[in-house]
Recover the amino acids of this structure.
């Protein structure tokens, strides 16, 4: 519960930061847009004023400048009226256009400027015409109205953007952190399980050594203690080897060269022969359904050898004394199928989705680390195979893997898998892994 709340809190903080950044960018963008619109409208007003003054100047040259002029002079209907004033050298101001408001003396300045006339903002422009000065002005109140009109939808859109951005960022954050939380939880479980599996043999070794040191014993008793310590040491080594193999897979992944194929029939046959001794010690009849036909899949020989070794080892262990285990490889269309059957207790339906988890054991009473099928599953996924766990015709479990058939282009060394399998932590017959 605490981890879930922490994840939600973290996602909310990330959503707030993302929302603030986006909204800040939006506000800056909206302000810049408004400034550009106002500047453009003001520049258009300046162009109209300059043109109006030029026209007045021409009229003055022709001697018609004393006649009162209309405020409309080739303007758009949406434009405010342009007023013109004449300022004498003595400073007296005379309206040239009809209906012009009074122009304060304090507003006069060279060039274009914005002034307040009668409580209304005006854009005015002055020009010298001989000994007098001409002033043209236009109300720019409509520019302020346009700016205010833009702010209303921008504000509404900004609020909607804020809500959508926060909710969207929060949902994305929660969705993105879910796999990380799953990985974190599985890592914590894996660490706890690994610690437990490693602690058990260490505790046995420590107890055996402490008991052996408490009093003098006969050579046979010491040999018995050493045999138990050696057995637990081998168990430790197998666990460590399996963990290191899985760690390498998790870190670097498993890549197969595009032109590498392996004869599944040959590896399965050799692996079955190698496990005959293990089957004999367990009282299990182990056989191979030999098709006498090369059936190739796209995989590395070492990986396939580890996979088959795990499946045969499990089959022999669960078949028990007097049991039967069979290995078969056959083709169906363009698919190659590997099947390992036994007549053991089988795998309950509710356990079939769990047995691939690391350290999971369907039967806690049986020996093993619970890593065998986790490694086998890594091999199957890396080679693009698919699992099928079902009931065997023998009465136990059927572990089946299916691959797409590959042409025999460049096979791995035909005998190398035996040597590699003997050196690996799972493919040799010694380990006794439990299902899952």
């Amino acid at each position: 519960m605490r981890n879930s709340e922490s994840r939600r809190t973290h996602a909310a903080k990330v959503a707030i930061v993302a929302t603030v950044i986006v909204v800040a960018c939006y506000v800056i963008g909206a302000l810049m847009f408004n400034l550009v619109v106002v500047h453009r409208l003001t520049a258009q007003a300046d162009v109209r004023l300059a043109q109006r003054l030029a026209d007045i100047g021409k009229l003055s040259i022709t001697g018609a400048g004393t006649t009162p002029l209309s405020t409309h002079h080739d303007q758009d209907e949406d434009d405010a009226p342009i007023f013109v004033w004449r300022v004498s050298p003595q400073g007296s101001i005379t309206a040239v256009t009809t209906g012009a408001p009074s122009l304060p003396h304090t507003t006069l300045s060279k060039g274009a400027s914005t002034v307040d006339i009668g409580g209304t903002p005006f854009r005015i422009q002055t020009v010298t015409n001989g000994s007098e000065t001409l002033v043209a002005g236009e109300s720019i109140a409509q520019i302020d109205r346009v700016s205010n009109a833009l702010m209303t939808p921008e504000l509404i859109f900004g609020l909607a953007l804020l809500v959508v951005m926060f909710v969207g960022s929060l949902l994305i954050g929660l969705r993105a952190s879910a796999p990380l939380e799953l990985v974190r939880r599985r890592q914590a479980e894996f660490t706890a399980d690994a610690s437990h599996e490693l602690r058990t043999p260490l505790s046995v070794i420590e107890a055996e050594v402490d008991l052996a040191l408490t009093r003098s014993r006969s050579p046979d008793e010491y040999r018995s203690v050493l045999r138990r310590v050696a057995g637990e040491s081998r168990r430790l080594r197998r666990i460590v080897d399996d963990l290191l193999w899985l760690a390498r897979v998790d870190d670097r992944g498993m890549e197969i060269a595009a032109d590498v194929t392996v004869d599944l029939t040959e590896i399965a046959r050799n692996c079955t022969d190698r496990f005959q001794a293990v089957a004999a010690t367990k009282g299990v009849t182990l056989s191979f359904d030999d098709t006498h036909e090369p059936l190739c899949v796209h995989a590395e020989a070492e990986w396939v050898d580890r996979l088959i070794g795990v499946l045969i080892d499990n089959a022999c262990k669960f078949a028990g004394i007097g049991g039967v285990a069979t290995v078969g490889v056959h083709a169906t269309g363009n698919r190659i199928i590997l099947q390992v059957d036994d007549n053991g207790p089988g795998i309950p339906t509710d356990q079939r989705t769990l047995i691939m988890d690391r350290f999971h054991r369907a039967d806690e009473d049986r020996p093993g680390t619970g890593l065998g099928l986790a490694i086998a599953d890594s091999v199957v996924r890396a080679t693009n195979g698919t699992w099928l766990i079902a009931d065997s015709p023998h009465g136990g479990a059927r572990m089946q893997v299916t691959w797409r058939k590959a042409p025999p282009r460049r096979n791995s060394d035909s005998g190398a898998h035996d040597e590699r399998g003997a050196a690996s932590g799972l493919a040799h017959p010694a380990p006794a892994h439990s299902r899952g």
In short: The CA atoms of residues 68 and 96 lie 5 Å apart.
